[in-house]
UniProtKB/TrEMBL annotation:
Belongs to the EXO5 family. GO terms for molecular function: 4 iron, 4 sulfur cluster binding; single-stranded DNA 5'-3' DNA exonuclease activity. Keywords: 4Fe-4S, Exonuclease, Hydrolase, Iron, Iron-sulfur, Magnesium, Metal-binding, Nuclease. GO terms for cellular component: mitochondrion; nucleus. This is Exonuclease V, mitochondrial. The keyword Acetylation does not apply. It comes from Cyberlindnera fabianii. Monomer. InterPro entries: EXOV (IPR019190). Its cofactor is [4Fe-4S] cluster; Mg(2+).
Length: 541
């Protein structure tokens, strides 16, 4: 009886097999007789020495390839059609292909660092976007280079993925989870800050295009309204903040410099807690008529009752299921995010003069003239909204303010109103104003409001987890200024390209939970190396 015992060669990568000129290993079948007859018995030693044992084998020499044959195969149209350059570029999906000018592609896998002459991640991130197919949903920030607070948290998921996303300019499509999250945030915001319907006002005014200064002033005005609501009602949502970072961390105690990087963020929720159920500050702020009067009264009340109040900073996270993230890095990143918000609120309240300087530098980079008058149509829209700013704007119209000296005439008497009723309502504003409203006017008020908040002790930092518009979990923790500076310096070194991306620990948990949701996973050298490591370990075990 003869058994066939296969000899299995090691697996050889496809490209090596195709392009190597060495003989191609193949399975060799050895025939072994396992039922010896008498003629198969061992020979005497002398005969064994003279006649070596031979085993019947299949001779494969006839199947070997000559050098000419190998050359013909390598140069065949089939192999030329899948040559290495095509595998490395042409056959790649667009987001991966767009990385190749900046990040080496080795054997079809992306390197974990960029080419030495490639721009830094920040330079690439803030460069003009000229590839529309790659930037759907991404804002071009080349005219105002900056980072968001969430962009500082490069290690909360996978810094290498952030690295690849930055150089590819690829934005994943909006997911159902993102839609649900936006809906929850909007719902909470509208509960706290109901919208004022301005459709009839806009219809009554001539159509106009808002300037960059108009848009900026409207956002700052809305921030003022929300901080006023915080002092009156104890809650404010979606508050815009900004700050600067350098190689030492978050900039504190000095003016902003040209080489500092702007960081912006939107705080989900500010909560002003009071030990006294009567809330003495809020109860005495109801009757004020102008923003200036509000700030004056609030300052006196805060000086008197600030020890009864604590200011909490809160971030809202939405989840599909009533479970917080299992990845420790994600929860840790969320905590660091709130710590940065907390520190930015403190810095914006350090002093009104420094806050003003921060805004001046911010607007200089944005290209906003903070002393340019607001468009008359927008001013009249605000006058028709009948909020706390209506009386303040009327004061600018009739009397001006301490900064009105030298102000240019602001004649809005010629604006045509399409609705007689609205024209009657704002008729007194259709005149030449003593002082025009400007972005600087609103910046001054916002700086003062943040200065008032600085008088309160900062309490807990919170992360609130929501599922289907219901909060199911709240984490509370304390701020840590050292952690904030560490986050800022580490992020800045990444974005400026002074260090390569930090790779995740090679754990099965990271491989399973994070790589499964990554658009670069099939081309990621970290994933490949980690899988190979686990394969080797499993073989050894």
């Amino acid at each position: 009886m003869i058994n066939l015992i296969p000899y299995t060669t090691p697996r050889i990568p496809f490209l090596v097999r195709c392009f190597s000129t060495s003989p191609i290993p193949r399975n060799v079948i050895t025939l072994k007789n396992i039922n010896p007859t008498s003629s198969d018995l061992p020979l005497p030693l002398s005969e064994l020495e003279l006649e070596p044992e031979t085993k019947p084998t299949i001779d494969d020499s006839a199947y070997g390839l000559t050098d000419d044959e190998v050359s013909l195969i390598v140069k065949s149209p089939f192999l030329e059609s899948i040559s290495v350059p095509d595998i490395q570029t042409k056959a790649l999906p667009e987001p991966i292909k767009s990385l190749t000018p900046y990040i080496p592609l080795n054997s079809g896998f992306l390197s974990t660092n960029r080419y030495p002459d490639a721009p830094s991640p920040f330079a690439k991130y803030t460069a003009p976007q000229d590839t529309p197919s790659l930037i759907t949903g991404r804002r071009d920030i080349s005219n105002f280079p900056r980072l968001s607070v969430t962009r500082l948290l490069t290690k909360s998921w996978c810094e290498l993925r952030t690295f690849y996303e930055t150089y590819s300019a690829y934005v994943p499509p909006e997911t159902a989870a993102m839609v649900r999250g936006n809906a929850t945030h909007s719902s909470l915001e509208l509960e706290t800050h109901p919208l004022i319907d301005t459709s009839e006002i806009i219809a009554a005014l001539p159509a106009f295009e808002m300037t960059k200064g108009d848009k900026f002033a409207e956002r700052i005005k809305e921030d003022c309204v929300r901080l006023i609501a915080l002092l009156k009602n104890g809650v404010a949502r979606e508050v815009y903040v900004h700050g600067y970072i350098d190689e030492n961390g978050l900039v504190r105690g000095r003016d902003a410099r040209q080489d500092d990087v702007i960081v912006t963020g939107i705080i989900d929720c500010l909560i002003l807690r009071c030990k006294d159920p009567l809330r003495p500050i809020q109860s005495q702020l109801e009757e004020v008529e102008t923003v200036e009067e509000f700030c004056d009264v609030a300052e006196k009340l805060i000086d008197k009752y600030s020890d009864l109040y604590v200011l909490d900073i809160c971030d809202v996270k939405t989840r599909r299921w009533k479970k917080i993230p299992v990845q420790e890095s994600v929860v840790d990143g969320s905590k660091k995010q709130v710590m940065v918000y907390d520190a930015m609120v403190e810095v914006m309240g350090e002093s009104e003069l420094r806050s003003l300087q921060f805004w001046e530098e911010y607007c200089r980079r944005m290209g906003v003239d903070i002393d340019e008058p607001i468009s008359p149509e927008l001013t009249l829209t605000w006058m028709g909204m009948q909020d706390i700013f209506t009386s303040s704007l009327a004061t600018l119209r009739d009397i001006g303010s301490s900064s009105s000296l030298g102000a240019s005439p602001y004649d809005i008497s010629t604006v045509l109103i399409n609705d007689p009723e609205f024209a009657e309502q704002i008729g007194s504003s259709l005149t030449t104003w003593v002082q025009p409203p400007t972005p600087r006017y609103f910046i001054n008020i916002l700086s003062r409001l943040f200065s008032l908040l600085s008088k309160f002790t900062h309490g807990d930092l919170r992360i609130q987890y929501y599922c289907r518009n219901e909060m199911f979990k709240e984490l509370r923790f304390k701020p840590d200024s050292d952690t904030v500076d560490e986050v800022c310096t580490e992020a800045l070194s990444f974005w400026r390209g002074t260090r390569p991306p930090k790779l995740m620990d090679r754990t099965y948990s990271n491989l399973r939970s994070k790589c499964s949701y990554c658009d670069f996973a099939d081309y990621c050298s970290w994933k490949r190396d980690t899988e190979e490591q686990y394969n080797r370990d499993s073989i050894i075990q």
